[in-house]
Structures are given as structure tokens and as C-alpha cells.
Amino acid sequence: MPRSAIKSIQALALVETGAADHFEVSDAELAIACASHSSEPEHLAVVEGWLARLKLSPADLECGPMGSIEETVNAELIRSGAELTRVHNNCSGKHAGFLATALHMGEPTQGYIGPDHPVQRRVLGILEEMGGVDLSDAPRGRDGCGIPVIAMPLEAMARGFARMAAPAGLPPQRAAAARRITAAIEAQPMMIAGRRRFDTIVIKATTNGPKGPALVKTGAEGVYGAILTGLGVGIALKIDDGARRASEVVMAAVLKNLGVYEETFEPVIVNAMGEPVGVIRPGLPL
Amino acid sequence: MPRSAIKSIQALALVETGAADHFEVSDAELAIACASHSSEPEHLAVVEGWLARLKLSPADLECGPMGSIEETVNAELIRSGAELTRVHNNCSGKHAGFLATALHMGEPTQGYIGPDHPVQRRVLGILEEMGGVDLSDAPRGRDGCGIPVIAMPLEAMARGFARMAAPAGLPPQRAAAARRITAAIEAQPMMIAGRRRFDTIVIKATTNGPKGPALVKTGAEGVYGAILTGLGVGIALKIDDGARRASEVVMAAVLKNLGVYEETFEPVIVNAMGEPVGVIRPGLPL
Prior knowledge:
The structure is a homodimer. Chain A is mainly α. Chain A has helices spanning 7-10, 12-16, 19-22, 27-33, 41-53, 71-80, 92-104, 118-131, 154-165, 172-187, 189-192, 198-206, 244-257, and strands spanning 140-142, 148-150, 214-219, 223-228, 233-238, 268-270, 276-279.
């Protein structure tokens, strides 16, 4: 299941329906619609501002309240005694995008996370088209933020990312939407994750690189996607055991081999005394 | 690497050297020497009291300060603004035991975590004897709490647990030490982990069970051990991917098949809205 890795593809609906134009959605808002954000103050401000412009409130979000997915930010939230709202949910930007689409299309906002709601049916159709795959019989479940999640082959995910990266062959309206989304992520890398997060760091580091940006996006359970707009390439990977500690290291190695990301990312494991006790690196040459 | 799963075997040195008798080590202290505790107030009190009786201070512990390994307890520690000390380290009881042994044997307390310190050499010898394995060429590293960690076959770990469970064939002094340790864990299940932790819950639930207690003990990276004193059986398992979410579920299934633990332990995964979105269960019959 692609989980959060495909939010940029899900966001196509927000642009294609005209909702993004109608509500004058900014780059930051469009990027956070594609994000698993860290609930840092900047993220909360963008989602809250967007909801206010839609004349909606956090209660209209149908994702649950939760702390930050980044441990240090979460500790700060606990320390501050801040009330955790639905805006804190790392998917709140995606949900704001769903709400904007529903409003613009005259669809009910309540229940927008249901698999039969037009917002979700529209996203499913886009996923099938971008992945080149029939998902009508695909296993489905419910994601951590409440929306439907549909199993799809890694190859279909990669094809979807490749089409985002090289949209020339897509219908003009979709190609324009893909370009607007990837440009927004490239312009607002902080919005996609967080200042200390791998996704944000890699996008920032590659934007002016020799082969163009790597718009990387993590998903739960070791899923990882990348849209390489400079090369016209899409990457999808999944770590069988669901561990992000491996997915980031493998993605970094793949990007390095492609000449897109120049850093070696092999995190040192440090114990409670601050002493190095191990290192995470790919076990096979990539 | 067996990580924390073998703390009860490591604790044999504390008893066999006479240190436990000399310092009148209580069941709670002996149990916490075998623990990966949750840094709950009860745990901190036992380790602090023990150190005070040894006329030592938390600074003599050579494990680093860290928060609780249990998320809810850790959030409470952050909220309270408590200073994290070395006593909070989940291994602090084991370290207090090492210090007691060094003191009793007239060995330097400083540097007791070093691989060449007599405390660690003694523990290594016991591991080899209990596991029936020569570890002189075994890969070694440094554990999260600073002590040496030595790779050993799962079979040797299981043999060590089986000998703890059925000590009749061991030399009398070791057999007595094994019995004292398992009795202490059985008497003080809260000390081994924490009130909401799987280990503590299983020990409590099985103590008066038809086939006797399952003294289960988790280790990092998906290692799990069990000493079944009623059956005279030892169990060692390791989840390849290092995930505890699997190790606890598998251990529960194995114990159920043995008739030791009667509960079915298949945790429901709940999303941020509190809705069930999945379940963790063994993929194969055990």
C-alpha cells in the first residue's frame, strides 16, 4: 500500500478540478497538501490559514488529532502543554486539499474521507490513470488518517511518479497540474516534511544539483517515492519489514548512484552515552 | 546479538560471587537487575535505594541518561520536566548489579562496562557455560547501555534459558543462583518491565497458571527469551527485521501453543481517530 508516498499524485485532483485556482492556493499550501508534515509551527500556520480562507475550521478535518511524527518536535509539543488538534495530524494539509476540492465541486464536505465520496472516487481514478493499473479489485484498507488506502504494485507507483516527473505525454490539463505540484514542492521543501527531516533535506540539497531536484516523499511502513523532474524519472521502493531506517538509506543510495544526490547517507547509531555503536548502510551494492 | 533478553543469565554473576548475599539484595533489586524497566517511579526508587546502600551514586552508573522506553511514561517524564538521569536508563538495574559485584569482589567500579573488566569477563564466561558455546571468536559490539554485546546462536540462547528453567543438572552453586533469580522475577514482575508492558503482564498472568510461569524478557531488535520454570523449557526467538511488534505476538502464540499463556495476543492497530485499521497476528500457524 503506497500510504503517504503518493500524496503528490492525490493532489492532482485539487489542481485539475480548478479548486486550487479558485481558492488561490499558494505553493506552500499545495506543498503541504502533498506532505507528511512534522507539526512544526510553520506547518500549523499554513493549514490553519488555508482552512480559515475556506471558511472551515479544524473540526472539519476528518483526520484525528495526534502529536508530531518527529520525536524532538513531539517532545516540544508535550513540554509546551499544547492541545493537539486535527491540524497537528501530519496529513492535515492533504485533508485541507480534499476539503477545498469538495467545496469547489459543490460536494458535501462532511464524509469526504469515505471511499464512496466523490473526492475519494476522483483520487482513485487519477491513481489508476497515473499508475496505468486497474485497481477495482485491489485490496483496500483505511489509512492512519482515515482515508481509503489501496494496494498497488510498486511498478504502478513508480510509473505514476515518472509521469509526474515527465508529464509531457499526459493530457494538457493533467500535465499542467503535475508541473504546478512539483514546482510547489520544489519551492517549499519545508512544507513537505520538516526542517530536520530527510525529505526536506534531500529536496533542498538537490534543487540546484546537476541533475535537478529529487522530490522524495516517505510513506508509512517503509514505502518511499521520488519524482526526479530533471531526469524525468520516478522511483518507488518498499522495505519489506516496514522500517523507515532502511527506506531512507536505500533511497539515498539509489539517488547517489543516479548522480542526483551527492551525499552519502549512512546514519551512525549512537547510544545513550553518545558513543557510536553502529551504522545503517545498504547491505548490497545498489 | 541477544541484547537485553539474557539479563537474567548475566545476573548469575551477581548471585554466584556472593555479592547478592553480602549486600542483602532483595527480590525487587534482583529482578530489576534482569530488567529493561520503564523508568516508572517504582523502578527509579529501587535502583536509587540500591545504589545508596552500596554507598554509590547515579554518577557511578556507566549507562547514559535516557527517557523511558515506554512512550506514555516518557511523555509523562517530559511533561513533568523531570531531569533524566542514568537511573532512568532502562538498564540501570543491571548496571547496579554489575557495580555490586565489582564492589564485593574488590574490583574497580570505574570502567566496569569495559570488555576486559573482570565483571564483563565473568559474565562472558557464564554466557559461554550456560549457552554451551565458545564465544571467543564471536562478533562483538557495544550495547545501547555501553556494555559489550556478543553475537551468539539462538540455539545457545535457548539452551541458556532452558538451564535457567531446569537447573538441576547445573553445579549446585549455579543451580541455586538460577533458582534465586527466577524466583525473584516471578515475585516481582513489575520490576522486570512496567505495569503496561507485555513482559510484566505475561509473567503476572502465568504465575499461577496450570503449567507455571513464563518468565519472558524482551531484547532490542526483536530478540525475545522465555524461561518456563514449570515446564523446564527455554525459548529464544529473534524477528529478522528487528521489530518488537512481531516478537511479542510470536512469543504469545508460542506460549499459547505450549498451554502456558492462555490469552490470544493479536493487537489491533488503531488510527488517530481511534478506529481499528488493522491487526498484528502471526502469518503462519505456530
